[in-house]
Specification:
Length: about 325
């Protein structure tokens, strides 16, 4: 079976598995990688960029290498290759868990239980929940759904289309390391620099594809394009900016503004300033948009891989 078909069938099965099963409560491969990365950090940590780069190389290289060996071991069996791709896709994407957590917070807000919403918010993002009222929590959830659609679904599919199982696993490893060490705390300002920069590079294509698909799948394509064009560059993150801006325009809401991380207050530019304030009902709208974007991304990535394969075969035939 051709590699493009292996990816298409396996990735579709993996996304369906995520839809039906979500993430396991125990023994998740990404959690196991996180524990291993933490163990490497305890050995290597120095307040130095070079040691942080070594940590990134060891962790990402080890994960990608193990995935490459696994893919090579089943290469002769189309069924096993599809199964491995499906398992890897299910392990690295997190669209169902993302939607589940967002909806749980939205349900708490709809019931007027702001304390319960604050308690659940750290499962979804790193904001300081005590610094947020109900509207602030709803806005944080919509922003997190937008950003994680790229990080937890679309970016993985892009790299799966490019590199198969090793691409899927390597992207999730990079993204996990960024979540662990890529923030600008005193401990990680230098040590996490390489993880953060590599995540910016790895997530670039997925973020732009996510933004484009939000334009296509949202209710206001013109507003989404305008917000992406005018506001994405104002965001401090080169990848979160296009995604959050396009989601804001597609949903007709304002995102950005003042927020707090780990006791540090940030004043971010407003995205889609002509939109209205986020409401609790927008959480469900964001989750539905995220799901549509994820399935569209599968189609785009599978088609892109097939077109590339046809191009390669055409070139070989002409030579």
């Amino acid at each position: 079976m051709r590699a493009d078909r292996v990816f298409a069938y396996g990735a579709a099965a993996g996304l369906l598995g995520d839809l039906l099963l979500g993430d396991p409560r125990r023994g998740h491969p990404v959690a196991a990688f996180g524990r291993a990365a933490g163990a490497v950090e305890r050995v290597l940590w120095r307040d130095h960029r070079g040691w942080g780069a070594l940590h990134t190389a060891v962790c990402v290289g080890g994960a990608a290498g193990a995935a490459a060996l696994s893919a090579a071991a089943v290469r002769r069996s189309p069924a096993a290759s599809v199964a491995l791709t499906a398992a890897a896709t299910w392990a690295v994407v997190g669209g169902t868990s993302l939607g589940r957590e967002a909806r749980a917070i939205g349900d708490a807000l709809a019931a007027g239980d702001v304390d319960a919403a604050r308690e659940r918010l750290p499962h979804l993002c790193g904001r300081d929940p005590q610094a947020l009222d109900a509207d602030g929590i709803a806005r944080a959830v919509v922003e997190s759904v937008a950003e994680n659609t790229s990080d937890a679904v679309v970016g993985a599919l892009v790299w799966g289309a490019v590199g198969g199982v090793p691409g899927l696993v390597a992207f999730r490893a990079v993204n996990t390391l960024d979540a662990m060490a890529g923030h600008k705390s005193r401990r990680y300002r230098r040590y996490g620099w390489a993880s953060a920069r590599l995540d910016d590079v790895a997530g670039w294509a997925g973020a732009r594809l996510t933004a484009a698909l939000a334009v296509a799948a949202g209710g206001s394509p013109r507003a989404a394009v305008r917000a992406w064009r005018d506001d994405a560059g104002l965001h401090p993150s080169p990848n979160a900016g296009p995604v959050e801006a396009s989601f804001a325009g597609a949903l007709g809401v304002r995102l950005g503004g003042t927020l707090s991380y780990g006791g540090r207050v940030e004043h971010r530019p407003v995205l889609n300033a002509s939109g209205r304030a986020v409401e609790v009902a927008d959480v469900e709208r964001a989750v539905r948009l995220s799901r549509r974007v994820g399935w569209l991304a599968l189609g785009v990535c599978a088609a892109g891989r097939s077109i590339w394969a046809l191009t390669q075969r055409g070139g070989e035939a002409r030579s």
